[in-house]
Amino acid sequence: QAVPAGSHVRLNLQTGEREAKLPDSENGKSDTREERRRKRLGKVDVDSNSFTSQELKKALAKMKESEKAERKVRKRFPAHEEEVRKKFRPIEQLKEEFEKLNVKMETDYEIMVKLISKFNSSASTLDEKVAALYDLEYYVHQV
User: Fold this and answer.
1) Rounded CA gap, 18 and 23, in Å?
2) What are the boundaries of each domain within the chain?
3) What does UniProt give as GO cellular component (predicted)?
4) Max alpha carbon distance in the chain (Å)?
5) What is the DSSP code string of 95-106?
């Protein structure tokens, strides 16, 4: 049976049964994702196919408020953003540096494309196709 997202699920090793528990919120009640969404949007009928102009205006105002708050945080901590930029370099710069060292850096996507083409190639042996599938499984699992 499907359980709501955010639920705590465990396997009881004594009985062999799977058990699920909704996470407790601050007020002692459990909130599902849908309940949290309704609280965030206010008294908006999220199940209807159309919204009134007032409901849309309220939702848009809340989105703008959260965006302004996010901008304030960014303005308050510009040093943090600079610190992150100093620690990490863009992928394009890393590729250029690796090219100078004669090292080709491939992204997971590029590797997956090569593995798929190896699998689809008629020149590949059965062992190569099986190896490509195992490697592809590893990369797909990460995604």
Assistant:
1) 16
2) 50-101, 103-142
3) endoplasmic reticulum
4) 64
5) HHHHHHTT----
pLDDT of residue 105: 76
Residue with tokens 């090569």: 114
Q: Looking up tokens 């930029």, which residue turns up?
A: 85
* Span 71-88, pLDDT tens digits: 776 666 667 777 877 888
First CA to last CA distance, the chain: 25
Amino acid at residue number 117: S
pLDDT at 15 over 70: yes
Contact 115, 136 (CB under 8 A): yes
Structure-token match 């992150």, residue found: 84
Render pLDDT for 105-119 as a digit per residue (tens, 0 to 9). Answer: 788 889 999 999 999
